[in-house]
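Before drawing any conclusions, I looked closely at one protein, both as residues and as discrete backbone shape codes, quoted below without any editing:
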Amino acid sequence: MRYRKFPKSGDDISVLGFGAMGFAGWFGAVSDADCIRSLQYAMDRGVNFIDTARAYGESEKIVGAALRSWAGAKPFLATKIEALGPKSQFGMPLAVEQAFPKGHVTADCERSLRTMGVEAIDLMQLHLYWPNWGTQGYWMDELQALKQQGKVRFVGISVPDHRSDMVLPLVMSGLIDSVQTIVNIFDPLALEVLAPICARHGVAVIARCILDEGGLTGFLSEAMAFPEGDFRHGYFDRTISRATYMQKVDRLRQYVPEAASSLAALALKFATHSSEVTTAITSMHVEQYARANIDALAEPPLAQAMYEKLRTSHRFVKNMNHVGHWDVA
């Protein structure tokens, strides 16, 4: 496993992070025991960054149980304050008073501490941010107070969709320590503006959706169906045709096995290539996924020319995050 420094502290962070969204069952049912086994396996292999959220069902509870029975080194633990209000808030701005009413940031942090059974959280993120809110306000005061009280070490923002530049005012304000945003072969836009400015201001970049909800692994077929309740239900079909998506994925097969052992490995190596990305997270709620992802990063890194070709020649930017927020014509 390779490591990079968390800019504000110098903590060694694994370039592959454990995304615990899958613990919510949104990618199919999985037992708590299997989730715990997968997380502990990943930590045993050197993964030391865990990302969860209040909004991820029982995820925080499962993470806490895994940590209590873990005898190894303490991982870097990140979670998120749950945003209140309609689902559409992740596709269109609403007032900060609706998403994070006064006192909610503080109370939700306390719930996370109790649920996971820890005295402090390394990184507390807002699960939503819109630049309409500015950079100052009671919500920021509450985040900073949590740091001063020692309940969290660092604070950050999770970008709601693909428009990563929306957090630049906060990055340049010096008030946050990290930004979590989408980074993958199809959408490398955060690498162009956000990541370099974060590096300049000592702000960590946490890449998410690095496998594009699994689409970049090549697992999709025309006949594949996702049940209601699965996060991917409608994800690949509502804003684009599935056939179009699959064609874009098929164009990447020409680089396997020369550049990577699989499509998934290609996507993982791409997302972790830039030194301006602190860590790249993906759901590893199944031990088989954890093993495959960790093994992929043991392969030689992408050649710089290949990285640049992927970054410039395979863009397929689309905002599938709007699916489920409102009907797409």
